Amino acid sequence: MSTHSSGDDRQAQPMPTDMNARELVRWSWRQLTSMRTALVLLLLLALAAIPGSVIPQDDVDALAVGRWKDAHPDLAPIYAKLGLFSVYDSPWFSAIYILLMISLVGCILPRSAVYWRALRARPPRAPRNLSRLPEHASYTTDQGVDDVLAAAATELRRRRYRVEVREGAVSAEKGYLREAGNLLFHLSVLVVLVGFAVGGLFGFKAGVIVVVGNGWSNNPTQYDEFVPGSLFGADDLDGFSVEVDDFDITWLTDGPAKGQARKFVSHLDYTTADGDTGTYDLRVNHPLSIDDTEVFLIGHGYAPVVTIKDGNGDVAYSGPTIFLPTGPTFESFGVIKAPDARPGQVALEGTFYPTFALGDGAPRSVFGDAVNPLMSLFVYTGDLGLDEGGSQSVYVLDKSDATQLMKDDGQPLRLDMRPGDTVELPDGLGTVTFEGLQRWNKLQVSETPGKLVALAGVVLALVGLLGSLFIRPRRTWVRARAEGGATVVDVAALDRSNGGDPDRGAAELAAIMDTLRAGSGDAGSTTKEDS
Amino acid sequence: MTDASWETLSNQAVAAAGVVYFLALMAHLVQWASLRKLPADEEVSDGRTAMAGRLAVLLTAVAVLVHAVALAARGMAADPNRVPWGNMYEFTLSGTFVVALLYLVLLRRFDLEWMGPLVVAFVLSLMMVAVIWLYSPVAPLTEALYSPWLVIHVVSAVIATGAFTLGGICSVLYLLKERSTKERGYLARVPELKSLDRLSYRMHSFGFPVWTFAVLITGPIWAHQAWSSYWNWDPKEVWAFITWVVYAAYLHARATVGWKGRNAAYVALVGLATLWFNFIGINFFSTSSQHSYAAPAVVEPGPAAAVEASAQVPLPPVPGPPAPPSS
Ligand code: HEM
Question: Does the distance separating the beta carbons of B201 and A260 come in below 8 Å?
Fold first, then answer.
């Protein structure tokens, strides 16, 4: 029996003891491409994927990695060495899937060749003794041998068998596409991997926070974070620019999801590299595509507008400042720096409460919408560390050389301000005015080449899989021989599918029998034996 | 009807379905208690024992109907109306519904009556878990869940979960029956090993493509739309992938000489464990999954907190079962 579709054609063998180098290579190759190795590698791959779901990953949540490292100073270096913070591109994880892919190629190439031959081969000769096959039946008729065979060939063709009549028997085979499906499936796994790799190598991912009313252009310098693939060239960037014109948001004020934000829409104006302009209502689940780049709305928050006038009466800072939310009620944290203020630099650090309330004596925000906005800031002066020229996060205040302003009673000075309030700073440092509120949007911008390749790959894999799992390869033989003035007809079948339903096979065999016997016009003298 | 009365109806229907499942279980127990006394090859087609069996199936069918009412009412109770799988409670209700429904649909075709007690017990226990620990009132979905993919993705994931669960039940029975030498009783009456193995394979070979569709096609498409990245190695994704790989290994195992039967059954059960772990367990182990109702990412003021940690739009609790709301 040809073994083109069964997995047992390539089995791991025990290692022979006397081998020369060539045999050793051959032997190793057979090991690697054996079905059992594939099985072990698959299980290993599953096992190796686990740590990445338990230990925070750099690519997923760099912040959590930082926190984890702080909490486990002893383990962190070891974990880092082992690549446990980026499991999915660690050498050992890669080793497993690369081995699997080699094994896959080594497996499908020879199988494709075998399949190619099998496709053109004639259905195999009828075994000598059909009654030995698991599915078998026979009957006797007074029709001639050739008539029986012709009728059998017609019936089997009707059942979509490939049919061949020779040496007093009909050989028939169907379900060739099962193996094609299987090969397609395995091949498509490679296609998916290629698509995935292309995305990682030639794509980029960037994030930008934009105050509503402002915009940005698609250029690395304009992004707050920019992560290019290792083969991504900055010239590949589509040259477009976008402006966030307006931002709508609805807050649920009652019901069980009270406090949840709903229907955020960012109204964008954009200009493409070719100078085309357009508008787009950007919502979650509805990214904007400009050429090969896509823009996603992934966050929003408040930017209080503050003006700091220094001791000389000059405006040292004025504008919206991005405050980062720290929780679902959009209580937000931020820093406002005025390094140019004279006589002394001024910085404010503190919390913005969109809906301020005193709960349990502690100030907090009870709702995300700006119903009762209040900003509560501490004041610093001295050297803000901005003069050295080093870059500093706008969200962090370097307090090493700064001093915090205190009240006479020794408590830190805290400015509690509502929009419109102006407060005078002590020591002639100037005034702070809370002018009003603006909003910001966080936008994710990315290019993912190869995503359609990957998608096509999985879809093909699924198609192949369906063929591989549900097409039932089957061989059927009908032999007729003259015996004592009558014709004895044997019908037998071999189901070559993996989990085929034996009842369906039996039903098909019975149906073939019925057709043949009905055609013979003589059902009286038949014997039917099923095993 | 008002939303509130739909919600009440749903809760009452859940309770009623639970009671009817319980009665079905009792009927099965009566049936099997008397079957125990008979030799395994003795067919019982009339009398009280057979009656109890038929009653059990009938009750299961009634329970499934009431269960369907509970789900439909749950969807009607939301404003706007929606599919009844937006949180863990609803997902568990939908998942158990599919397990029970699949069992009924396949009952005739595969002679699954012997599976009745296990399926009903499984569904009943999970429903109890849902009602006691996972209950949450009807709420609108988070923004990202308003997507047609919620329907396609979750339905396919639930169907695959149902098929894998039924297949896993066959594998457990395979392993138990293999060890058992008893001539009477439950194990003696379940189908022979070869049929169990084949049945298990058929459930899995149905579930696997559906799972592939849910996890590797619709999941990434949705993730791409909502999060800009079609595959992010998020813990839920990782475990969905692990489940997929393990079931691929199961199909291989069954095609590899020497692994058919027992070893394949072990691999199938590992697969089932990863599947249900992903559904329930991962929510307790991982805090970073985007597939949770976790509120906007909490920002810690600190150097690392810079921009990347700015508040996220609350994102979809998919694929697979959503995590429980954190509030
Ligand atoms: C990424 C790795 C792989 C995956 C995800 C995978 C997945 C699958 C799946 C799901 C099937 C089931 C389809 C069926 O039963 O017809 C299958 C069948 C099969 N695979 Fe793989 N496979 C992988 C690698 C390999 C490798 C490396 C080999 C070669 C050693 C191999 C050989 C086979 C064979 C021969 C079958 C057919 C078994 C049968 O007769 O039913 N596979 N594979």
Answer: no
